[in-house]
Design goal:
Helix content is 18%, strand content 38%. The chain is α+β, with helices and mostly antiparallel strands. Strand 10 and strand 11 form a beta hairpin. The structure holds copper (II) ion.
């Protein structure tokens, strides 16, 4: 049964016969259906008979593969005299309503600029927050803006300033990329791609009691 394909190690023969195998192979344009090994639902002969579903699923997995092949680290972004480096956001547990975003913003110009807000694809709002120790307790509060003076490099990091994705519409998973737009008084709107790092990621400084 489906010996031709099985001999090439491409079909796990979870399909029920030669006809199914040939059909599935021709649908994908090539016989390497190694996805079989990881997707139990593919093993159902009933599913295999629905070409549209197969194609949809295959296209989805292909898209996912491209997505996952994206660079692990986000690129630096230059906007006017500002350079935004290593933007990252911490992964969130299921059901979390907020997530913290961090980056370094350097101003090489002769005029100051100010981060005043932004928007994101994954949350209802994007706020600028400051964390500080108050009476031995780490607290955070929203601020209207964050100045980046001429020649200054401002670090947004756990335990300090950060952008807060408020009203998350989905959990943030490690390895994902989150698109956001940061608004600066002078540089204007700047598109930033945040890399989602692990829930325990620190990259400098403690980040306790980081909830609302
Ligand atoms: Cu916050």
């Amino acid at each position: 049964m489906c010996a031709d394909i099985a001999n090439r190690g491409a079909c796990n023969c979870s399909f029920q016969g030669p006809a199914d195998c040939t059909r599935a192979a021709s649908l994908t344009g090539r016989p390497s259906i190694t996805i079989n090994a990881h997707s139990p639902r593919w093993a159902s002969p009933a599913v295999a008979f629905i070409p549209e579903l197969i194609m949809t699923r295959f296209a989805f997995i292909a898209a996912l593969a491209v997505f996952m092949a994206a660079p692990a680290e986000a690129q630096d972004i230059t906007a006017g005299s500002l350079k935004i480096s290593a933007p990252w956001i911490r992964a969130t547990p299921k059901g979390a309503s907020v997530g913290g975003g961090y980056m370094t913003i350097a101003n090489s110009g002769t005029a100051g600029d100010r981060l005043v807000g932004g928007t994101s694809d994954v949350s209802n709002r994007l706020e600028i927050h400051e964390m500080s120790m108050e009476g031995g307790v780490m607290k955070m509060r929203p601020v209207a803006g964050l100045d980046i003076k001429p020649g200054q490099t401002v670090e947004l990091k756990p335990g300090g300033y950060h952008v807060m994705f408020v009203g998350l519409r989905q959990p943030l998973e490690q390895g994902q990329h989150v698109k956001a737009t940061l608004r600066f008084e002078k540089a204007g709107d700047v598109a930033v791609d945040f890399t989602v790092k692990g829930i325990g990621a620190q990259d400098g400084g403690p980040s306790k009691a980081h909830g609302h």
